User: Fold this.
Amino acid sequence: MNKSFEYLPKDKRKKILLITDDIRVHSGVATVGKEIVIHTAHRYNWCQIAGSIKHPEKGKALDMSADVSKFAGIEDASCFLYPVDGYGDSNLFRQIVAREKPDAILLITDPRYFQHIFKMEGEIRKTIPITYLNIWDDLPAPLYNKPFYQSCDLLMGISKQTVFINKTVLGDDIEDRICNYVPHGLNSDVFRPITELDKDYGKYLEFKNKVQGNADIDFTLFFNSRNIRRKQIPDSMLAFRGLLDSLPLEKALKCRFILHTEPSSEHGTNLVKVAELLFDEKYKECIIFSTAKLPPHELNYLYNIADAQILLTSNEGWGLTLTEAILSGTPIIANATGGMQDQMRFVDDNGEWFTPSADVPSNHRGTYKEHGEWAFPVYPTSRSMQGSPPTPYIYDDRCAWEDATERIIELYNMDPKERKERGYKGRKWAVSDEAGFTHKHQASRFLTSMDELFSTWKPKTGNHIINTNEYKGKFLNHKLIY
Assistant:
């Protein structure tokens, strides 16, 4: 048995201070944080600086130990939450560290949210290691992130591209740190295929009829994510309209596109107006907006209703909804960028699962075309370099909606039985040890990384300075053309 799964009594465990979104909310990083806490509660005690934009419970201290114990299946979990606006500040951090006395710090989300932590790294790492479950959406390698990576003792890259970026940006400095691949993992008992033999099949049919009515539907496309610009939702709607235009009217009317998102958002656009533009009176029933906040098992029903999940994001570190779809046995249509590449399992010239290198740092140019049967990639046709003062450069990988239409049509024309078989192959791979996109695999990889850290880490002595304004290696150290 892996020692990482062995139970430790509460008084024998090390304590970790997690800093990310409040693990009770439904954001991607909160979901990942929650899964890690629950499935490592037998080995570590937890406390959290629980972030939110305007937290209604700011200033409170909440004991969540009973809830974590219930989900973890143990009797003595320890988990305390300290709700804050944002992710707190240096004064709050010092107060909680003094109160909780953690053995390690765990950060999850964009490094710019933790600048107050990184500015204190010389102080912190004299007694406590800093660990970072991190991700970066795209190339070129963000050399401006080097001071953040240098501030960490353990870097856990969520995608293969992130691990490559961590190592590329750090250069020789990587030798003083641990850098491991720890991809997202979800509860594969919740996100699963629903068949006629499933105990919840009746509830699933009832839910399906509620969403689609009793209409005779031949094909359903599904989108599930936030209404923000980089998600390219109007392009997905255009691609679906392309499918409808390719079919006789009577067949087009048997297609549906379910969008589980906000119909209008200042961070994205007004999708209702987009729908009015693209889907006239004859097609208006083909678009369904799902706006209610659903529990995970009902969200799984939506994935099971779908014949395909689509995500054309121009910048995507991972794409958690793709993982949910794959675990549910649903094929995916996705832009070949960022961490979404991992989930499509591209195969390199050696017949291996593609791992980025300095020669081929990403497959967003379509260098490799072989991939998992459950995946229907759309390759970017525009790689525009965008930026802002905090993040001066990053590729914006945009695919053509017409190319997405071709993948939708390909799936539409496929025998429904074959679609299901391909989706099931995706799930089989996702729960395998190679991919390991499950909560158990994620916990195992996390525990292994933390065990390695605790067995090798030494407090930083003396004074050391990380200059956040100047750094060596300002020039690109991977190919631009590949």
The CA atoms of residues 453 and 480 lie 34 Å apart. The chain has a mean pLDDT of 95. The first helix runs from residue 28 to 40. The two ends are 43 Å apart (CA to CA).
